[in-house]
Amino acid sequence: MATDAPARPAAPPKAPEQTAARGRGRRSRSHLGRFAVFGAPGLMVYACFVLAPVVVSVAYSLTNHNPFSPPTEFVGLRNFELLFRDEEFLQSLKVTVQLTAILVIVPNAAGLGIALLLDRKGWFYNAWRAVFFVPVVLSSVVVSLVWTRLLADDGVVNQALGRVGADPVGWLSDPGLALYSLAAIMAWQMLGFCVVVYLAGLQSVPGELLEAAAIDGAGVLARFRHVTWPLLAPALTINTVVLLITAFKAYDHIQVITNGGPGSGTTATVAFVILQTGFTANRQGYASAMALVMLVIVASAAALALKLLQRREVDL
């Protein structure tokens, strides 16, 4: 008569630490799989179109690369040494700083004022919001061509001045006015962006705070100063950083309207000089050194502005 086999002893219960470790491992593999599906394509695009050009520019900046004058030789940091003795580059840096100061201040101030006027309900105010935003979606080349005709010596603006007995003004031909005219055109195009951002900020201000301030006896200006303006700090941060970057990379307006003139480099920005050096003079090694210096300046200025403005948001 066969005897029953001895019962197999039950497996000891798993320790909670082992169960938790296996759970974490499964979750990490799940996160990795999601990243491979959704994040990897975007990371590859970023690497191809952002990181790779930066690496190539760094390599070119250390050479005298000119596609029409081989061979390419390694020159080390000589391009950077020449750069800070280059009068054309230093002049373009000065022009860029002036343009940036105007472009950061004017659309910000005007955009805030217009947003306050349009912060109402109704189709009339909605229509005006659309009107102010139209220039933002237009091509910079189209805007530049239109304003070039308007501000030409025989353009519509000077014709209107002539009808009222005023002398014509060389808006784009006078070296003392060309940069300011150019800055005004760019500010006009970016005005709608600032208006929309400030309108979004105004509509997020709690009405209860304004009502409470009014009950406490605060007037219109006091409510704006102590309630509305502090709560618009994020909108100010967005507008300032976007305008700062836009001004530093300005090229298409200059190319179409003034081509860097009138005169020698009166309106030539750093971006304009880089492209002229790289694709007109074909000094691509030297242009790459300029581009890297510009990248460092823009990144540093944007990071500093962002840090200071965000610190203001926290303090408020």
From TrEMBL:
TM stretches of this protein: 35-60, 95-118, 130-152, 177-200, 231-251, 285-306
Membrane topology: Multi-pass membrane protein
A GO cellular component annotation in the UniProt record: plasma membrane
Keywords: Cell membrane, Membrane, Transmembrane, Transmembrane helix, Transport
Region (Disordered): 1-27
Subcellular location: Cell membrane
Pfam families: BPD_transp_1
InterPro entries hit by this protein: ABC_transporter_permease (IPR051393), MetI-like (IPR000515), MetI-like_sf (IPR035906)
GO biological process assignments: transmembrane transport
Main location: membrane
Keyword Transmembrane helix: yes
Every ABC transmembrane type-1 domain range: 93-305
UniProt similarity note: Belongs to the binding-protein-dependent transport system permease family.
Record-given protein name: Sugar ABC transporter permease
Taxonomic path: Bacteria, Bacillati, Actinomycetota, Actinomycetes, Kitasatosporales
